[in-house]
Write a structure and sequence with these properties.
It is globular and about 65 Å long. The chain is an alpha/beta fold. Strand 12, helix 8 and strand 13 form a beta-alpha-beta unit. The chain folds into 2 domains: 169 residues, Quinone Oxidoreductase, Chain A, domain 1 (Alpha-Beta Complex), CATH 3.90.180.10; 130 residues, NAD(P)-binding Rossmann-like Domain (Rossmann fold, 3-Layer(aba) Sandwich). The two termini are 30 Å apart. It binds NADP nicotinamide-adenine-dinucleotide phosphate. This is NAD(P)-dependent alcohol dehydrogenase. GO terms for molecular function: oxidoreductase activity.
Length: 337
């Protein structure tokens, strides 16, 4: 459950915060602006004034929900926690008496993970959660955009142990996960082929892709290339098509695998002994620190497609759910002061 409490305190002259809720599952229009009580941090809790959050594919999937089985975790008939939003950047605004590594005024970034709750002007997190200081080199927008695609891409990159000069194809390269995966694979010395629409060729090249393919024609018979890693980011292809392009003992990554594909992948892994990687990722502090260290070294860029104000969350969800964002969509929550 959320750490925030809905009390509509503004009517009573008490301090309040703006929050976007979804009281029922459904289309973007279920998202509503409410005013809630500002929470007080206890013990090792930190209160953050959120400056930016992001709308990720995970948010709209939970909102619908898609797949419906997600109700088992998020609430059978209606959402248990009515606030979406995984990633955030902001300023530490108050701390519990046991907090030692953060101070009021620190600029931070982090992820609330599957517990969510970042679509709010203030949030409470634990000191030992996925939170780190925002480096001077990073903007608040980059801080909010880095964790969803970045942590997902890195978790799967680590699973396939990419070696120098290996040939890696990133399918769905303009997505949040794909735009991160290109850069991480390049960092490991891979030769990266990015598959995306023609409109995004320049973007993926700017992130380091060695060559580009249009996703409309990649699977044409004329394409005879074989790859060490087939990294499918968007769940838009058939596994049997991907396997045709994989070298013997290569790694197949299925970031956005559907349930049907997960069963297929399990069969390939257990019975055919293929290197297939799928399923939920683990968000770790170590991985978040690694991504931020790459930003500091100038070796990783968080691609921001657009910003929306908090009040236009419905429009932001419509845009992200349409499935054509380039990298990340950021929400302006409070001022950067
Ligand atoms: N396993 C896990 O734990 C985990 C974690 C996070 C996310 N995911 C899943 O990973 C997937 C990607 O998430 P995301 O947030 O990175 O997605 P996203 O940013 O919302 O993806 C949008 C991008 O996909 C591209 N795209 C759409 N149709 C395509 C196609 N047929 N071929 C190639 N590219 C296409 C779009 O390019 P155009 O505009 O050019 O069409 C657009 O740039 C989602 O399915 C998500 O649920 C899984």
């Amino acid at each position: 459950m959320t750490d925030l409490h809905c009390k509509y305190f503004s009517d009573l002259g008490e301090p309040s915060l703006k929050v976007i809720t979804y009281r029922n599952y459904g289309p973007p229009e279920v998202l509503k602006l409410e005013e809630w009580e500002i929470p007080i941090p206890k013990s090792i809790q930190i209160r953050i004034r959120i400056v930016k959050t992001a709308v990720n594919s995970g948010d709209w999937r939970v909102r619908k929900p898609d797949p419906q089985i997600a109700r088992l975790y998020f609430g059978l008939f209606k959402p248990k926690n009515p606030i979406l939003g995984l990633s955030y950047s902001g300023v530490v605004d108050a701390i519990g008496e046991g907090v030692t590594s953060f101070q009021v005024g620190d600029k931070v970034l982090g992820s609330k993970g599957i517990k969510m709750g970042a679509y709010a002007e203030y949030t409470i997190v634990e000191e030992n959660s996925l939170i780190i200081k925002l480096p001077d080199k990073m903007s608040f927008a980059e801080g909010a955009g880095i964790s969803f695609g970045g942590l997902t891409a890195l978790d799967f990159i680590n699973r396939c142990q990419i070696q120098n000069n290996q040939k890696v194809v990133i399918y769905g390269a303009s997505s949040s996960v794909g735009s991160s995966a290109i850069q991480l694979a390049k960092h490991l010395g891979a030769h990266v082929t990015a598959v995306c629409s023609k409109a995004n060729f320049e973007l993926v090249k700017s992130l380091g892709a060695n060559e580009t393919f249009d996703y409309e024609t990649f699977f044409a018979d004329s394409n005879q290339n074989l790859y060490d890693v087939f990294y499918e980011c968007v769940g838009k292809t058939e596994i049997k098509s991907n396997l045709k392009y994989l070298k013997k003992n290569g790694n197949l990554v299925l970031v956005g695998a559907t349930f049907r594909q997960m069963f297929q992948a399990l069969f390939l892994k257990l019975i055919k002994r293929l290197n297939v990687h799928f399923g939920p990722i683990e968000e770790t502090l170590e991985n978040l620190k690694f991504l931020v260290s790459l930003v500091n070294l100038g070796k990783y860029k968080v691609n921001i497609d657009r910003n929306y104000p908090l009040e236009r969350m419905v429009d932001a969800h419509r845009y992200v759910e349409a499935g054509h964002k380039k990298g990340n969509v950021v929400i302006d929550v409070t001022s950067e002061r």
